[in-house]
Amino acid sequence: MIPPGYILIRPETLAGVQKAVEAALGPAAAECVAAGGRAGGARAAAAVGGTGEERVERLLAQGAAIGWGHFRLERLTPTSLSVSVADSPFVRAYGSAGAPVCHLTRGVLEVLATSVLERRVVVRETACMAVGAARCRFETVDG
Predict the structure, then answer these.
(1) Considering the chain, what percentage of its residues have pLDDT values greater than 70?
(2) Which one of 3, 62, 66, 70 is at 20 to 30 Å from 43 when CA atoms are compared?
(3) Using CA atoms, how far apart are residues 36 and 14, in angstroms rounded to an integer?
(4) Closest Cα to residue 140, out of 118, 1, 58, 64?
(5) Cβ proximity of 131 and 99 under 8 Å
(6) DSSP designation for 79
């Protein structure tokens, strides 16, 4: 069953859109795709209550439940957040790449981190399965 407010779309469709935007915009495409993640992530983050750690855990569980991969909270401190993802359908659909490709996930995690850490942060994908890493890894940096 698809949760209310969601649509079912194949990862290959999103990868195709991402590759087309990359072809049209070059490096600026990454921020366009991340902006989409931030838009969806803002709504999801606003709907989740609890402590910072509880909110992070709930949103990571939701991400797994809707098929975005196997999320793991690596680190949460008052100043930083680090999350890894295995079995990302976006990477499977995108294929091999020379640089990280999980911009949509990065955007969602950026909104979550900004909300939980209560200040503007940027999230970077520091490892990506598309470039050969075992897991995709996302870490906050001050924005």
Answers:
(1) 99
(2) 70
(3) 11
(4) 118
(5) yes
(6) S
Q: Residue 142 half-sphere exposure, CB side, CA atoms within 13 Å?
A: 2
Summary count for the chain: helices (H), strands (E): 5, 4
Q: 21 in helix, strand or coil? A: helix
Q: Is 51 exposed, middle or buried (0-12, 13-18, 19+ CB in 10 A)?
A: exposed
User: What pLDDT score was predicted for residue 73?
Assistant: 98
Domain extents in the chain: 11-142
Confidence (pTM) = 0.94
Q: What is the mean pLDDT of the chain?
A: 94
Model pLDDT for residues 50-96, shown as the tens digit of each residue: 999 999 999 999 999 999 999 999 999 999 999 999 999 999 999 99
11-142: which CATH architecture?
A: 2-Layer Sandwich (3.30)
Reduce the DSSP state of residue 32 to 3 states and report it.
helix
Q: In what order do the strands lie in the sheet with 70-76?
A: 70-76, 81-86, 136-142, 121-127
Confidence at residue 143, expressed as pLDDT on a 0 to 100 scale: 61
Q: What angle do CA 61, 92, 34 make, to 5 degrees?
A: 65
